[in-house]
Design the sequence.
């Protein structure tokens, strides 16, 4: 499957004085496949070390951080491989060897090959490693397939994507048949999600049931990881928090409440478990603002937040099976809003946008507030046909943002004043990629 990271890897490969690269991301988002494919296209040799399977290599890094000693050992282990610019050293599952993470500082300065590292729950390992080589490595995040990558996997031509891109830049409506077809593709994307194996299964079988089976297995793999990698009592608490997310989002206000996880327990008991999930890349945490003044980060309510899964397909797999049918037909029932909020949170996160929400009173809420083109920008998500919102309109009138986005299934457009952009939800990824290029 074609992925955006391919282009980034090529830029890294062609750069001078490149540092070792660390690619974080949840398990099964495609890190290992993308790295192997990149190596096949750009190097004559690939030396792949898996620290979960090759314990002798973990022992090596436990004994020494000296680049020459590490090189000598590897040369004896891989006699047919020249350790030079023709070779990529791929350190997989590096979270299983904290000594290897620390050694990257020394390898960055003296090792003769390019180095790429990856691993599941790597964010946790980085956060807990006291001697992480800051300044000596480059760190990226890899996520599930974006909508564009999903369309690539379906075989949608570049002319369709160019059409969406041009329309987004000029804010000119698409013809209705094209718009409705894109909504259909997007509904499938929301249900299937972006996990590569799930997408591949759906494309090959055209079966939502088969895709659902893979999704549920991946969720089980994640809960197994919690038992394997989380420490002590967090092993159970992390799973409890993760499994509560569908229930949290099914509520009207969607705010994360510890009593939904387990009655009678509070933040002190579960805080470290949520942090583990966030650092693992499994959830997206969106805090509430107590006021809307810049910098927004100064107004965060740390104790009040929503939690979204990093992939809507995995989220939907935890609801009852009727939700898939309802979503595809536009009848979302009690889950109305939660799923579309989740996909917007996911797209904002992939674009590197830290998002917040604002709730001045119980009857008014701004779904997301982000920085766009350097300015505070409200984002409203409407899953129903009715896109009118008094609270959103009042917010725009009061705070006068240079831009505001109303996300729905309707065609693109803007209000008479030009400061509210009406955006079809499938176009949000394109809008974020085209920041500073939208025609006023």
Sequence:
């Amino acid at each position: 499957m074609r992925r955006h990271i391919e282009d980034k890897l090529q830029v890294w490969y062609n750069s001078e004085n490149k540092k070792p690269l660390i690619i974080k991301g949840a398990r099964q988002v495609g890190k290992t496949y993308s790295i192997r494919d990149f190596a096949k296209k750009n190097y004559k040799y690939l030396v792949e070390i898996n620290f979960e399977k090759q314990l002798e290599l973990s022992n090596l890094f436990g004994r020494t951080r000296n680049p020459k000693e590490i090189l000598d050992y590897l040369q004896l282990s891989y006699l047919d491989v020249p350790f030079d610019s023709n070779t990529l050293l791929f350190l997989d599952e590096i979270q299983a060897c904290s000594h290897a993470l620390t050694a990257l500082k020394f390898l960055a300065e003296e090792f003769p090959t390019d180095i790429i590292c990856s691993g599941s729950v790597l964010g946790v390992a980085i956060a807990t490693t006291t001697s992480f080589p800051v300044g000596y490595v480059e760190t990226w995040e890899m996520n599930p397939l974006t909508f564009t990558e999903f369309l690539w996997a379906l075989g949608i031509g570049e002319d369709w994507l160019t059409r969406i891109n041009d329309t987004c830049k000029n804010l000119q409506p698409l013809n209705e048949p094209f718009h409705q077809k894109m909504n259909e593709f997007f509904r499938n994307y929301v249900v299937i999600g972006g996990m590569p194996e799930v997408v591949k299964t759906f494309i090959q079988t055209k079966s939502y049931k088969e895709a659902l089976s893979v999704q549920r297995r991946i969720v089980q793999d994640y809960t197994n990881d919690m038992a394997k990698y989380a420490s002590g009592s967090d092993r159970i608490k992390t799973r409890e928090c993760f499994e509560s997310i569908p229930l949290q989002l099914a509520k009207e206000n969607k705010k994360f409440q510890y009593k939904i996880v387990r009655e009678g327990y509070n933040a002190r008991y579960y805080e470290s478990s949520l942090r583990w999930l966030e650092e693992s890349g499994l959830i997206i945490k969106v805090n509430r603002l107590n006021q809307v003044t810049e910098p927004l980060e100064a107004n965060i309510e740390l104790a009040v937040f929503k939690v979204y899964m990093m992939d809507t397909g995995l989220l939907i797999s935890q609801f009852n099976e009727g939700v898939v049918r309802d979503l595809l037909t536009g009848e979302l029932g009690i889950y109305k809003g939660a799923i579309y909020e989740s996909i917007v949170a996911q797209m904002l996160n992939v674009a590197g946008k830290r998002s917040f929400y604002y709730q001045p009173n119980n009857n008014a809420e701004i779904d997301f507030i982000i920085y766009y083109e350097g300015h505070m920008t409200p984002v409203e998500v409407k899953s129903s046909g009715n896109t009118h919102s008094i609270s959103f309109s009042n917010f725009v009138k009061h705070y006068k943002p240079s831009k505001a986005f109303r996300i729905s299934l309707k065609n693109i457009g803007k209000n008479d004043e030009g400061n509210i952009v009406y955006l079809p939800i499938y176009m949000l990824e394109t809008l974020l990629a085209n920041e500073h290029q939208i025609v006023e």
The CA atoms of residues 186 and 212 lie 17 Å apart. The chain has two domains: 5-141, 147-433. The longest strand covers residues 300-309.
